[in-house]
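Researcher: Go.
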Amino acid sequence: MPITPENIQQPSNQIRVMVVDDSAVIRGFLTRFIESDPDIKVVASMSNGQLAVNSMAPGKFDVVVLDIEMPVMDGMTALPLILKADPAVQVVMASTLTKANAAITFKALEIGASECLAKPTSQELAGSTSFRDELTQKVKALGLVARRKRGITEKPQAVAAATSSSPSAFKTATPAAALPKKFALRPEIIKYAPDVIAVGSSTGGPQALMQFFTDLKTTVRQPIFVTQHMPPTFTTILAEHITKQSGLKCHEAVEGEVVEGGNIYIAPGNFHMTVKEHGLKRIISLNQDAQENFCRPAVDPMIRSLINVYGKKILAVIFTGMGSDGQKGCQKLIEAGGTVLAQDEATSVVWGMPGAVAMAGICTQVLPLSSMARAVREYADRGGSL
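Model: Structure:
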């Protein structure tokens, strides 16, 4: 018998998931991986997009894990119909790691999907603990997003757990009034323009980056370094989309290339991006050192390397994302005399990364996404010197 919401009695505090994939083997792996976390339950398993759409109803699912290539109805056709049936549901696009699929996934993000995952082959899935962990973390965080959209708010511990980079327990619901989100802003000390801009983002980041760079409109004189948590190939497409949509010069960083002002450098998937001095030049250095904050690329090593090269003349911007990657690097940046801006909670898909720096009291400004480009432009265009 197929798994459907009607024939399963699930605890109300579990995140409810529908898995949609034409491969029964893949559906089985995804279901086992998701249910390795007791706080998540797969309540429906469908073999094509049409069956998924037919099963939708408001509040029935918190998260849908959706394949792209399927018979009868593919994922891209099903996606807008799923979101129309339940605007609060969060959709994770799961696709194999090809450039074509990565390009399609970006279109899915543009029309309402929340996240993307590079799906291993069925042979690779069996022993893929890293994919399992990434899947459960994203499903848990997005499950909370769906519930908040419906007016259900979890206890502070649960919010922190689900938006962090490691699995932990999901708690029962509690009123929103019990969730204080107070933070203190740092007074602005520096009045000069930065020499470099560092940007970090994760869940919801591709959409935020697209808007930010489109709003920026014209090139700034500083180089901009971007670490977005994404797998290989997806970061290539991200750079292409930013260039096409914003008209700015953006590309995936290359080992050994000389840093030039006005360029946007995207950390390649599975590589930390750092900057080193080489004589009078500054060059990009990529590495596959251990993951930090369960991520590679990660924001913290990027910011640490920039401090070593540029000192305090750095402006860091932290956009939407789960976990706290970037918080330690930004703390070091503040100690060095730099400046940190963060996206606000209302416009973030997940207020994990920007929330971490905001709650640490190290932000000069916490801004809605629509205001971030203007603020960065104001810093970038300043005159003066140390």
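Model: The first helix runs from residue 24 to 34.
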